[in-house]
Description:
It is built from 6 helices and 5 strands. It is of the alpha/beta class.
Amino acid sequence: MKKTLPKYPRILAIAPSSRGFGFALVEGLDMLADWGVKSIKGDKNAGCVSKVAEMGAHYQPDVIVLEDAAIKPSRHSPRIQALGKRIAALAKRSGTVVMMFSRKQVRQAFFAEGQGTKHAIAEFLANKYPEELGARLPPKRRPWMSEDYRMDIFDALALALALRRRSARHRMSAER
């Protein structure tokens, strides 16, 4: 049975990383209700799945959005790819709709030609949510620098808004 979603579903976006994961909860039209980074020690996949399960029980999202790390070419490690599959399976078992977007689809949601960078998306999001995220915008990464852990928040929020923008386009095309 296919679950029908409300016009503005509660979206929990998860962006797994080498440290744990970033998350963003979007409610209503585009309200950023919660966000952050969960760092996990020890067995990272088990810890991440456990934390996501807790968040799912607490927030009761209509949709969980993840990056589709299995799409080729993917720079994600096999551990991150396996984690994405485990989170998706967990969400499906709890009856939550799971949506997955490739990095390319996320860029296309923000840039007409899909030719933007992660930092450009993060700047856009920091400007859209200046009180919540303005101070959390990491500096632009140089080639010799590791990625700032705060970027995981922006990755998660970009996934949530990619779903919102896709849903809005579908509603507009259905109204024509």
